[in-house]
């Protein structure tokens, strides 16, 4: 019988009760971030509440499945076999929202999932050569990209608080009397009166009473203040789940005020299988696949740094073979995500930080957490409950979550040498500027070929391309493993 002391802490099998407790802890830490992406994309696609709830359930289910594949491993070629929690990356949100805006509804969903499956397949193929690509993504590049991701996502959190700038919650509405006048003019045109020009439309001029309601702003502020107070005074797990706890407080307040309703939660079932291809066969558009592939490359760069850092935390250095096995799961998980109506997957850095904080290095804790996520995914009431959360409650949390992504980029950039290598300033300055173009001038691409719109209407993709090119121009291409590890240690917010 082998001595139990010879078992590495990563491979230690803890008692079931402890595994369950620690697994729940991991789930709580990542839950808020895990459900945010399906909420954002589902609502951008203008899907029904039932479909949005399904996206959330599918996301939880695939989170658990891919986490088990990564932590437990299928063979020595698939799965890094370290305590890793897999979740949807925020880096993919910008391009997906652009696709959703271009084609809302089921068709847009099919385009998004086709791009995800295609990008996942490419990621699977390039996993063995990612070591060579790392040289193009030093901290000055990854920090800049993450900063632009956070800044781009901030508008989502802000719109959650005040209302979307288009549709029923737009700041201005069309005056009904103006609509009536236009109808009268069209009637007159039919009887020989003046002809109404083609494409003529009434501009919205009336303030919308449901935009930026004071009560909505107050609840968003309550959530934000709650998160900050819990983060400041909470200890251990409580501090780590500050965002989730703040949202719960906001939901309780909204329920008391009659602003949150649970009808759809009551109607949802207790069990349902997560079915693949719910919205039909995916649409494989080469340009959209290329766009999402660029996102996957950035994601795999982050994963590489995360795996190297986790190897140091757990005292199990990661070999090139293990690194490739882990990156393959990013690709496989993303393909599974596209098939099961969900999104690209990567290791969640918050949970890597939790391993360091708790000192529990067993990968079986993450396997247990994966099982818990699968169970949550097949309970439709959980998805319906998350979907029922009012957007203005999420607004306060979104400000923190997406702001922390931007702050993470700043933290990574804080370790970049700007003093003796002033050219790094050009890399950051110009890349951020390009990243803000679609945000500040969304119509700039109106005369450009429609086929390239998915690429150039994403500030994240633009910033990524420009940052890589400028860094190669000013600094050449090189890679230091220590830089990737340090960047991963700092990237604990997305």
Automatic annotation (TrEMBL):
<feature type="transmembrane region" description="Helical">
    <location>
        <begin position="425"/>
        <end position="445"/>
    </location>
</feature>
<keyword id="KW-0813">Transport</keyword>
<dbReference type="Pfam" id="PF00860">
    <property type="entry name" value="Xan_ur_permease"/>
</dbReference>
<keyword id="KW-1133">Transmembrane helix</keyword>
<feature type="transmembrane region" description="Helical">
    <location>
        <begin position="84"/>
        <end position="103"/>
    </location>
</feature>
<dbReference type="InterPro" id="IPR006043">
    <property type="entry name" value="NCS2"/>
</dbReference>
<feature type="transmembrane region" description="Helical">
    <location>
        <begin position="241"/>
        <end position="262"/>
    </location>
</feature>
<dbReference type="InterPro" id="IPR006042">
    <property type="entry name" value="Xan_ur_permease"/>
</dbReference>
<feature type="transmembrane region" description="Helical">
    <location>
        <begin position="20"/>
        <end position="40"/>
    </location>
</feature>
<protein>
    <submittedName>
        <fullName>Purine permease</fullName>
    </submittedName>
</protein>
<keyword id="KW-0812">Transmembrane</keyword>
<feature type="transmembrane region" description="Helical">
    <location>
        <begin position="392"/>
        <end position="413"/>
    </location>
</feature>
<keyword id="KW-1003">Cell membrane</keyword>
<feature type="transmembrane region" description="Helical">
    <location>
        <begin position="451"/>
        <end position="474"/>
    </location>
</feature>
<feature type="transmembrane region" description="Helical">
    <location>
        <begin position="364"/>
        <end position="386"/>
    </location>
</feature>
<feature type="transmembrane region" description="Helical">
    <location>
        <begin position="217"/>
        <end position="234"/>
    </location>
</feature>
<feature type="transmembrane region" description="Helical">
    <location>
        <begin position="52"/>
        <end position="72"/>
    </location>
</feature>
<feature type="transmembrane region" description="Helical">
    <location>
        <begin position="109"/>
        <end position="129"/>
    </location>
</feature>
<feature type="transmembrane region" description="Helical">
    <location>
        <begin position="136"/>
        <end position="158"/>
    </location>
</feature>
<feature type="transmembrane region" description="Helical">
    <location>
        <begin position="287"/>
        <end position="310"/>
    </location>
</feature>
<keyword id="KW-0472">Membrane</keyword>
<comment type="similarity">
    <text>Belongs to the nucleobase:cation symporter-2 (NCS2) (TC 2.A.40) family.</text>
</comment>
